[in-house]
Protein 1
Amino acid sequence: MSTILVTGGAGYIGSHTVLELLNAGQRVVVVDNLDNSSAESLRRVERITGKTVDFHLLDLLDRAGLDLVFKRHQIDAVIHFAGLKAVGESVQQPLRYYHNNLGATLNLLGAMTDAGCKTLVFSSSATVYGDPERIPIVEDQALRTTNPYGATKLMIEGICRDLAIADPAWRIVLLRYFNPVGAHISGEIGEDPRGVPSNLMPYLMQVAVGKLPKLTIFGNDWPTEDGTGVRDYIHVVDLALGHLAALAKAPTLPGCTAINLGTGTGTSVLAMLHAASRMVGRLLLYLFSQRRAGDIGICYSDATRAKQLLGWAATRGIDDMCADHWRWQSRNPDGYATSTR
Ligand code: NAD
Ligand code: UD1
């Protein structure tokens, strides 16, 4: 049994990963400042698994507090989810994003170095490919970003690479997620965005529960089969299991390795809307509008490296993603704030 520190573990992807780590018999320590999450997610994870999480309400910008966590626990490896993630907000508040995402990561890497813990799995993003040169996207493709959020991911990847060159004891896996959606099958934990969602699936689900009238589809003139944007949606539980695979294989990998976590399949906005409508039992209303500023047409992964290096592949399809997300959203229309149960 290992002890894994999960930063940002109360958040959407973090809470699903904590659940899978506990189910796999690992000890889990979580650090989160609850800036974009609720401790209720972890209470529910404990209820589902029958196991406990050692939760520290702490900002990663607090280096002294972080050092205490490493003193208190013998941490074997870290999964680093903590960060701000809203692209539009990062354009409005660049300093907040650079300060939080870079500051938190530098503190974490410093604390890990001092504690002699040198195994890290980092949440990167397909956003580091910008408008991709080629589809499907392989990891060696040119990297570029168009917004401060993406820039923090790219900078952190660079910091990790430099660290692994300077000290060969480090084992760092940079996981580049495509579009995480869905929820745990229990319907007890899921994505709980603050305000009006900007991403497709949470927006669609709020249309489904009647909180929003209709989906606005950003463009029907993309060079795709039905003219709407294509993305690589990945079930959050598959994504969580990808982290367990990365932890298991980290010792066998070179110092710092970037790996896509996607399904390798593209799905259009209209195809997703129809899949969600089938789950909900009625056609979800939509209208077409202009393309969203900064949007790209087609983005999906080549998932070969994850299969080869981690022995991991996504197994859940679009129908599972919609069914599970809908179960969560319909039982918790207001997320963790209030529940119908
Ligand atoms: P989330 O906002 O639900 O979770 C992030 C967590 O980090 C939150 O609980 C937040 O409170 C915490 N946090 C932020 N700054 C902190 C700090 N300074 N100290 C302590 N805790 C802090 O987001 P998520 O969707 O679960 O994403 C997790 C990670 O995956 C993020 O790094 C995100 O950039 C990355 N990612 C997410 C997506 C996506 O679509 N959800 C896609 C690609 C990459
Ligand atoms: C967004 C982020 C990206 C992040 C990714 C994964 C932006 C600009 N980019 O990208 O950095 O890595 O999520 O979380 O936010 N759509 C609509 N109507 C809506 C919402 C979305 O038609 O109301 C369409 C989009 O045009 C796109 C698809 O749905 O074709 C998916 O959009 P979204 O969920 O925002 O994800 P990304 O655009 O991939």
Protein 2
Amino acid sequence: MKKIMAVNAGSSSLKFQLLEMPEEKLITTGIVERIGMKNSVFAISVNGKKQEEVLDIPDHAVAVSILLNKLIELKILASFDEISGVGHRVVHGGNKIAESLVLGDDEIAYLEEIVDLAPLHLIPNLTGIKAFKKVLPNVKHIGVFDTAFHHSMPEESYLYAVPYDWYERFQVRKYGFHGTSHKFVSARCAEIMGKKPEDCNIIIAHIGNGASICAVKQGHSIDTSMGFTPLDGIPMGTRSGAIDPAIIEYMMNKKNKSVKEITNYLNKQSGYIGVSGISSDSRDLVAAAAAGNHRADLAIEVQAKRIVDYIASYYVYMGGADAIVFTAGIGENAKTTRSNIINRLGALGIKMDEERNDCRGVERLISTDDSKVKVYVIPTNEEVMIARDTLALL
Ligand code: ADP
């Protein structure tokens, strides 16, 4: 039995889970928020009860020491030596990293080299890794990369039809994200169907605030909707998803804004919030649409249409599919969104069982027995996947 910490460091937050492996038993979970701001918050769940404290936490290194000392103080750990390994969620592994790996000096230097590919995420990820390494120097630190699962994509999927030297010299290509989730959910789906991953084709719809669709053929990602960055693909809570790139210059001229400002609109003021003008949260949109708000309804429909475009195209690309899986905040919880998507796939003989679909956050088959493709809800668990990969590399 080993205790493994799964860490997700953001720019001002640090989420963690301590798991007992290989049992995959959650020991504790928590979050440090508002790092570097006044009134930082440290929250931890002890025996299912949430404890919260307001503290001053100037940087990630302090957050890590406070968090580890709390584990001792709350008697969750007797000493730091009980932690066998730390698995760090890292958003980007660039062109080279195709699997989880031990984070030594060379690996960290490589991540620093590619920081431009995802500065908003990679910089805090690196800060978190360094802070943990400093406090736990004798423990192995493993990087688990959002992009790694998609390294199996063929050239025809990941290359953009732009001048080839953009790819060769500047690493412009599709990377894809949410890989840890797509890997976990597709493996679990194969298990539920009683098949080996290499014997099935699965389409995963990871729909949360961020959302991406993935075609998993015989256990490997062969295409996904997010691209060079997580802005591509389907519309999300605040992101536009794919648009005609010529819109950027056009709107720069119309609004007299910089590239940066327009990109900010596409990242922060688009998707659900952009179309509805109400909210980026799917619950608010579902409620507003039910009350007759046309733009809330439109925001949901625009997204559903694009999701169906991807699912149908991946179905054909893989030569058929055994299953479609819904996961993440919306995929796991929003039955009307799921129905709306599946009901548009009738031409492929895919049929939703509305009674089975009446569920939230549970693992369940939601298609009819005569549906040509099985449809499941499978809750994702990126932390367990991080802990599994960490354990494997210890
Ligand atoms: P991310 O991890 O990308 O930030 P999540 O996977 O946590 O996002 O998903 C957040 C989304 O899930 C929000 O839009 C939220 O409204 C939605 N969600 C959560 N619970 C429900 C629910 N019961 N019904 C509909 N949507 C829900």
